[in-house]
User: Fold Retrotransposon gag domain-containing protein from Postia placenta MAD-698-R-SB12.
Amino acid sequence: MLRTDQLRTDQRAQPALISPFCGFLSQLRIYWLVNTSLTTIELKVQVAMSLLDGDARAWATPYFAQLASVQMGVQGVTTPFRNKAAFTAAFKARFGNLDDKVAAQVELAKLCADKSVREKRTAAEFSALFKGPADRSGYGDLELRDKYLSGIPSRVYRKIELETFTTWQEAEKRATEVEQILNISRAHRPELNNFFSARGRGCGGARGGAPTHCCDLGSSDRGKLSRVGTAPSRFFP
Assistant:
């Protein structure tokens, strides 16, 4: 399998063309365009394949041999690729899916690392952004779970950080539930504040109001209550 570091960075041979693998073909086309010394398709393909290493270079080796035979004029040997489009098609057929995976991995990394908007968006909004690249990334369940949890709002994460999930979808479901509960609680908080504030005013609290509690009665009234035995003596000095 082609790795993201399987591109040579020998500055004497090429400029820093591709690192990581994502975007290989698009940047290769630019290099072909600006490097006018590559006058034949054989030279263009040789340059492209010289950037590959590991398993990717193993894929390119038979083509290298065929190109060398063409350049030496071996009878009956033809170039493996008639033009750039033919090379591009062969390359995509072998590595196209991987290119999509790396692009998705880069997208996920940016999405999860953007802490400036983490607290501004909801868990549901983050899930919608996360799903597409997650499906294409090739990451395993645990990797995706960890990345998902690292990107949800901290107020939600703190409520579920001690829970166990085996997939990011399980974490998403729980995060959505918790966020809904938090939203309901926040929506009713003003009503609760008003309720307790009203009770405080009714009992002669800090906000004032007419005294209705027996402890708020005047001394003459307390005396009357004491004489008729309706107020326990421990309430009054």
Q: What stands out?
A: Residues 115-188 form one domain. Residues 1-21, 204-217, 228-237 have pLDDT under 50 and may be disordered. Residues 168-202 form the longest helix (35 residues).
